[in-house]
């Protein structure tokens, strides 16, 4: 029986320099069962093996795609029966949204050491629950894929622009994200999208089952079960039960985007109604459009005419929160 099971993806960008340190740390701490995969397709086999050592906590060391694939397999694979161990996520990869929401930031080895310290004692006070987003549609014959943060409309286009155009420049993550924001705003002001700017968003219709729908062009479309939404801010949203999916859509307007970013920066997002900024909760959300892209924890999907993407929330899943 292991105290901690660590699942690493050596092909993750952040692991190229980190993994030798991780291997040395695990070699010095036999309480850690370390399993490395070469591709996300091996995660199912990895978790079947990890289940045999009955860890107190599972730690995921990889990018957003690795985390998403592991969460999907944990929820759907049934390897741990009805009582899966809590999951911790090391701050690794380009965005680390899930890790940040769970209080993991900075040096991944420091976070791993913190997890091991918690696992040696009573973890109950550090365990939190989050619901996952189950995405169906977007691909023929696909089974639901699980994640915690979905970006759509202009946000998905901006993420792809950053990934394909800005990251290859070799700049730091922070500077890359700042340049992407400037490119998005420049595109909105000029009304031009193309090779050097993110494409202009396509029209999209978002339906909150039982609660109406939004239709238009949005520079930001976010659906998440994380506590934090935009610029790391907690969002106050009226109605709905704790843990349900949170939706934010921002009209394709520089003023609407600046309003949302300013409110998020000052911790006021959701306190008052803002023109062009739409906030809501829901148990089921439909996204429809003509080749409108959405990205769920790093994986790309498309909503097409007559084949919408449908989002539902799962039962609560335990996670290990590293921050106090």
Describe how the helices and strands are arranged.
Blueprint: E1 4-8, H1 15-28, E2 32-36, H2 43-52, E3 57-61, H3 64-77, E4 87-89, H4 97-101, H5 108-119, E5 127-130, E6 133-136, E7 145-147, E8 149-152, H6 154-166, H7 173-190, E9 204-208, E10 213-216, E11 218-224, E12 245-251, H8 254-265, E13 277-282, E14 284-289, E15 292-296, E16 299-303, E17 309-313, E18 317-320
Parallel strand pairs: 1-2, 1-3, 3-4
Antiparallel strand pairs: 5-18, 6-7, 6-17, 8-11, 8-15, 9-10, 9-14, 11-12, 12-13, 14-17, 15-16
Helix pairs in contact: 6-7
In short:
The protein is an alpha+beta fold. The protein has 8 helices and 18 strands.
Please, could you describe this protein's structure?
- This protein has 324 residues and is of the alpha+beta class.
- It has two domains: 4-121, Rossmann fold, CATH 3.40.50; 134-313, Sandwich (Tumour Suppressor Smad4).
- It is 30% helix and 27% strand.
- The protein has eight helices and 18 strands.
- The protein has helices spanning 15-28, 43-52, 64-77, 97-101, 108-119, 154-166, 173-190, 254-265, and strands spanning 4-8, 32-36, 57-61, 87-89, 127-130, 133-136, 145-147, 149-152, 204-208, 213-216, 218-224, 245-251, 277-282, 284-289, 292-296, 299-303, 309-313, 317-320.
- The strands form four sheets. A six-stranded antiparallel β-sheet has the order 7-6-17-14-9-10.
- Strand 1 (4-8), helix 1 (15-28) and strand 2 form a beta-alpha-beta unit.
- Helix 6 crosses helix 7.
- The longest helix has 18 residues, at 173-190.
- The radius of gyration is 20 Å and the shape is globular.
- The protein starts with a strand and ends with a strand.
């Amino acid at each position: 029986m292991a105290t901690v099971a660590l699942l690493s993806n050596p092909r993750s960008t952040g692991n190229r320099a980190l993994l030798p340190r991780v291997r040395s740390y695990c070699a010095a701490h036999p309480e850690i069962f370390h399993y490395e995969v070469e591709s996300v397709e091996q995660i199912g086999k990895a978790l079947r093996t990890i289940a045999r050592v009955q860890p107190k906590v599972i730690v995921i060391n990889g990018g957003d795609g690795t985390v998403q694939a592991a969460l999907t397999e944990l929820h759907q694979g049934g390897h741990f029966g009805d009582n899966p161990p809590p999951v911790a996520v090391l701050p690794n990869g380009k965005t680390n949204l899930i890790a940040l929401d769970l209080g993991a930031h900075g040096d991944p080895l420091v976070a791993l050491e913190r997890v091991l310290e918690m696992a040696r004692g009573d973890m109950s006070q550090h365990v939190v629950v989050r619901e996952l987003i189950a995405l169906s549609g977007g691909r023929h014959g696909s089974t639901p894929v699980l994640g915690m943060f979905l970006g759509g409309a202009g946000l998905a286009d901006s993420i792809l622009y950053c990934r394909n155009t800005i990251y290859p420049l070799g700049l730091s993550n922070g500077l890359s994200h700042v340049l992407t924001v400037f490119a998005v705003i420049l595109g909105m002001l000029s009304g031009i999208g193309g090779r050097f700017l993110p494409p202009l968003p396509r029209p999209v219709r978002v339906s909150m089952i039982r609660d109406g729908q939004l239709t238009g062009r949005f520079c930001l479309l976010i659906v998440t079960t994380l506590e934090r939404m935009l610029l790391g801010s907690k969002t106050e949203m009226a109605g709905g039960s704790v843990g349900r999916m949170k939706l934010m859509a921002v009209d394709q307007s520089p003023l609407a985007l600046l309003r949302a970013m300013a409110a998020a920066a000052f911790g006021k997002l959701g306190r008052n109604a803002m023109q062009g900024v739409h906030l809501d909760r829901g148990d089921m959300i439909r996204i429809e459009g003509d080749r409108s892209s959405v990205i769920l924890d790093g994986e790309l999907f498309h909503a097409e005419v007559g084949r919408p993407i449908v989002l539902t929330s799962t039962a609560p899943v335990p996670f290990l929160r590293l921050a106090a």
